[in-house]
Structures are given as C-alpha cells and as structure tokens.
Specification:
Helices cover about 30% and strands about 20% of the residues. It has about 200 residues and is α/β, with parallel strands linked by helices.
C-alpha cells in the first residue's frame, strides 16, 4: 500500500519570515481540499536558508509565542536545510524514507552512529528547541546529549543549545562522498504564492 505526501517548502534566504498560523492553516486547508491534496497527507514544513547560522534567529522567535515571525506550536513540524550541496542532500534524506534507511545503515556499519527514528541531523526545529539555551539570563533547557550532527551544523547548535559530551559530530564527507542520487520521476514540484509543494510516494 502506498501513501502520498506533500511538503510545503519556504525559502528564507538569510532572514526569518513573517508568519500567521491562521493564514497558513487556511492555505493548507485549501490545498487539502483541492485535487492536489486529495488522498495525500501534509508532511513537515521545509525551511530553506542560505546558511546554518539562521537557526539561531529561528529558535529565538520559534519559542516566543508573541513573535510575528515563524514560531513553533504543538501542531507544527519544521525542518531546516541550507541550499548548498550538503543541505540539499540532507533534505533528500528527509523526503525519502528508503534513502534515509540506507544511509543510517551505512553510518552504523561504519561505526559512526546508531540509527534512530528521527536523526538529529535532519534538523527538526521542534526537537532542537527542547535544548535551546536562552542567550540572556541563566535559564537553560533540556541538555542535548544524544544523536549526531554533521560538522556544518554542529558549531551553531553547540553555540545556542545546551549540549552534552555524548553528542556526535560527523564529518561532512560521509554524506558528500556518498552517491545519494535516486530517481525523482515520481515527485511533483508545484508553485504557489506562499510555498512550494513536493509530492512524494513512499511505501507502507
């Protein structure tokens, strides 16, 4: 049996984005009731930016319920990637369950890190926010002491999050040197005024 997913994708460049949960919900509801959304499930929102350092701004606003920029809620699901080669390869892993399974097995077989249900390097912002450390004051949130990040991600995460000694840093070459190309002929790219939607088939 197969299910289809579509993913709203937002390009941020080097800055955050004005955000209205009500407007986004109305927009996604219209997509869900359209021929595009029929029989499909909305996946996580994908945020694309020019650099990994942008997550510092995303975190500061995401955990602030009064912010007018992108913020997290109990129903939100955001993943962040950069638009360089490393970020786009990570995004492909997030969108392709079989590719992610093969990659996690490849890392485990080489003694790099164990497989997990939601690898930290896929940059779930809600997961990272649990360990986000406020830069002002002494309040610290949950320590991030498990999982793995790539070198390109690790510096900014260690700067803004309360991390522990068991957090693994993987050299970028383990992904850049791997052939992750696959047949994308089943994916659809659709443009809207607010977002790009990817539709992907995955096995169940």
């Amino acid at each position: 049996m197969y299910r289809y997913y579509y993913y709203p994708v937002y390009y941020l460049g080097d800055s955050n984005l004005l955000w209205s949960e009500e407007a986004e919900r109305m927009f996604l509801d219209r997509v869900a009731s359209s021929p595009l959304g029929y029989g499909r499930t909305c996946g996580s929102s994908i945020l694309l930016g020019d650099k990994w350092d942008l997550i510092e701004n995303l975190m500061a606003h995401g955990v602030n319920p009064r912010s007018r920029l992108i913020r997290f809620s109990k129903n939100s699901s955001f993943h962040y990637f950069t638009v360089d080669e490393m970020g786009l390869r990570l995004m492909k892993l997030a969108l392709d369950e079989m590719a992610l399974y093969r990659f996690q097995r490849y890392l485990q077989q080489n003694g790099i890190c164990k497989a997990s249900m939601l690898p930290l390097y896929l940059f779930s912002l809600e997961l990272l926010s649990e360990a986000y450390a406020l830069k002002k004051g002494k309040q610290m949130r949950a320590e991030l002491d498990r999982g793995a990040l790539f070198s390109c991600q690790a510096d900014v995460v260690k700067r803004i999050c309360n991390t522990g000694p068991n957090l693994i840093t993987i050299p970028d070459k383990w992904l850049l040197d791997l052939d992750t190309e696959r047949d994308d002929s089943s994916d659809e790219l659709l443009l809207s005024p607010n977002a790009t939607f990817l539709s992907q088939q995955s096995g169940m």
